[in-house]
Write a sequence for this structure.
């Protein structure tokens, strides 16, 4: 399993539960939804948080035809679940309008407020001031444009050298809880295009694109990194960010900027360094490539066990198959952390100690019982895609006691990504 889970005993006006969940699977196979809701609400109730922040990616799944209906069902299921009635207000911003590819991110940020949470306000980005919170249980507003109460960033085609349409970007909102001011940013970065290409060098092109995209978002929230030029230099022309007007609006008198303290949680799509991983699985082995035509990129790469013709690892664009089943043991998966390098580039972002196993990719079909929930799929190398990170301003507000960083849905089929959560108390 993913390890971690449970907790509790943290009841206080300052307890937060920050959850990131790529929910594509439960929209594509709604039979998974009741189990997903059960696992999510179980952790909400165990931690008795005053504010639950649920950052979702891929709302609607790949085909978002029944998206609104399923979204309403999801939010209603959460708000009416046994024990959840104490969460009397829901503030939600969900991007469901897929008609404009230049604006659509499929992100959804839903905040559940406990009835005991009295002193709470939201940041109004338009006027630079704090404002009272409204909201009914189980509701969310469509965020196709910009609203005063959130800021949406959509990566456009051609940005960072990505020449394909994507639903990647960020959605952030500002909160004041008992006088403590924080921003919460829902993040979805680019996935690997091909397993074969990812294994060709370190860092891979896709890792450099993710790096540039995250630096762009950090710049947007004020976490300007001093390693910025360095990252762009390494990535070359692929990651030239477009010119853009400054976000520092000239606001009226008495206006203030958004909170500096920011929690970034979402599907960062951070992957293991595939070139190093292949050498770990098959030391000294060189890939044998298959091509449809000699000048075309390879469609398959096979690494044999040294000195034999027995395949140890087979890669295709969306296939990652290790022959040795021991690779998927808990001990072996834990050891893969040595190849989890992408987040380390961002020295100004902090992550609590991570003891859970990779949150992706699980077999997401619903099988008899729950056993499907624990099998890693053969599409990608296991990876810690889903994270809760924070800047140093946010870290300084977090109480070191009572932290719990864990995966939701251990032993249950809840989709190809397990939601990842951080329970914490603000000082």
């Amino acid at each position: 399993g993913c390890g971690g889970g449970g907790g509790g005993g943290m009841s206080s006006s300052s307890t937060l539960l920050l959850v990131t969940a790529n929910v594509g699977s439960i929209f594509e196979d709604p039979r998974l939804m009741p189990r997903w809701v059960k696992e999510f609400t179980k952790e909400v109730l165990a931690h008795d948080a005053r504010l639950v922040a649920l950052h979702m990616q891929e709302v609607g799944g790949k085909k978002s035809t029944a998206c609104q209906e399923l979204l309403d069902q999801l939010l209603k299921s959460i708000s009416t679940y046994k024990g959840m009635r104490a969460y009397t207000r829901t503030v939600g911003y969900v991007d469901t309008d897929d008609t404009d590819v230049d604006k659509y991110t499929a992100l959804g940020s839903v905040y559940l407020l406990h009835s005991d949470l009295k002193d709470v306000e939201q940041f109004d980005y338009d006027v630079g001031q704090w404002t009272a919170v409204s909201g009914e249980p189980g509701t969310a507003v469509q965020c196709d444009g910009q609203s005063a109460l959130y800021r949406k960033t959509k990566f456009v085609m051609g940005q960072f050298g990505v020449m394909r349409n994507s639903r990647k970007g960020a959605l952030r909102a500002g909160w004041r809880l008992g006088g403590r001011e924080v921003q919460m940013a829902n993040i979805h970065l680019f996935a690997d295009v091909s397993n074969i290409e990812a294994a060709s060098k370190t860092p891979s092109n896709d890792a450099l694109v993710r790096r540039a995209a995250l630096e762009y978002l950090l710049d947007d929230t004020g976490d300007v990194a001093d390693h910025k030029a360095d990252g762009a230099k390494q990535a070359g022309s692929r990651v030239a960010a477009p010119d853009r007007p400054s976000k520092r609006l000239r606001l009226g008198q008495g206006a203030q900027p958004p909170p500096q303290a920011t929690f970034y949680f979402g599907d960062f799509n951070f992957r293991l360094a595939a070139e190093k991983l292949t050498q770990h699985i098959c030391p000294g082995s060189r890939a044998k490539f298959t091509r449809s035509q000699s000048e075309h990129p390879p469609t398959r790469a096979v690494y044999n066990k040294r000195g034999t013709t027995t395949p140890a690892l087979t890669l295709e664009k969306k296939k990652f198959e290790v022959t040795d089943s021991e690779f998927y043991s808990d001990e072996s998966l834990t050891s893969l952390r040595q190849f989890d390098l992408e987040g380390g580039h961002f020295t100004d972002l902090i992550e609590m100690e991570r003891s859970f196993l990779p949150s992706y990719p699980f077999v997401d079909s619903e099988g008899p019982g729950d056993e499907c929930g624990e099998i890693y799929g053969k599409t990608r190398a296991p990876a810690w895609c889903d994270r809760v990170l924070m800047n140093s301003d946010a870290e300084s507000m977090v109480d070191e006691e009572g932290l719990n960083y864990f995966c939701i849905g251990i032993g249950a089929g809840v989709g190809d990504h397990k939601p990842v959560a951080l329970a914490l108390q603000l000082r």
In short: The two ends are 32 Å apart (CA to CA). Confidence is low (pLDDT under 50) at residues 6-11, 224-249. The longest strand covers residues 169-177.
